[in-house]
Amino acid sequence: MSGDANQSAGERDGASFGAPKREEEHHPARRHHGILDPMLDSSDEGLLGGLGERKGVRPSNATDDRWAHRRGEPRIFALLLSIYFLASAMLTIFSAPAIGNPSAATFQAASRTLLALVAIGVVVIWPLTRLSQASPRRPITAALADVIVVALLAQAVIWPMTVLPGGATIHPLPWLGLWPWSVAFGIATLFFTWSTLVGAIIASAVSRVPGWGRAGWMLVVVLVVAGAPLALMSAGRFGVALPEWLSLLSPITASVEFIESPSGLTARMNSIEWIAALAPLAVSIPFWIIARGRSRDTMAT
Description:
Blueprint: H1 2-18, H2 23-26, H3 37-40, H4 47-54, H5 75-91, H6 96-99, H7 104-130, H8 139-158, E1 169-170, E2 173-174, H9 181-206, H10 212-238, H11 251-259, H12 271-300
Antiparallel strand pairs: 1-2
């Protein structure tokens, strides 16, 4: 009887030896990868991990690091966004004197282009980057960190252009203060509230497993921020008159609308423009609530 027991035990051992192991034993750190995660991954499989290995530095237990792709955040994202904003300023404000005679009109045109590029960075490049990555461990905390980074970088672009109300001449170039303090504060508020709204959408979207839902959220964001500019361009081309408030629905056109003024008059913020600057903050509240609920559900499961 002991021989039968030994035989059955051997058969069980052989079966267990030949049987495939469970997936989690083969892949202890298996996780969902985003499109950009290989670039930011600090494990051996990622770009940053490969650079560390070339320098003779091998990350300790890197393959078991489930959050290796987020180790440099939000510093890496802040660096990349800073480079984008700096390149935008170099191509607009700082290159204006090379285009022609430096004047207030030249710098106003360059500042309009710069504000549009900053808005694209805030409402298009930022969500496109985050929705292409794997979900962070704490989606709300990660999104709030991004909001702080994006808002501060946007302020760093806006306020240097508003040092003096009405502008001044500092040789060898005209100073960039081409609009009053109230307009600058309105633009700063606009970018802050839109950063809060985009951050809330990102937090709500990344609280779930990556999939087509994220692509749908990105499509909604693009349609919202690009709808007004495309409608205004089409209307201008075909000679169709559209209501003026339509340009306030997108930060790309709203920031430009804030600095526009009739000929010979100083740009000023009106009540409708202030409402447009503050409205995204109110719209973001439901998305933060949704993100909070989804994070709790994820932690519970």
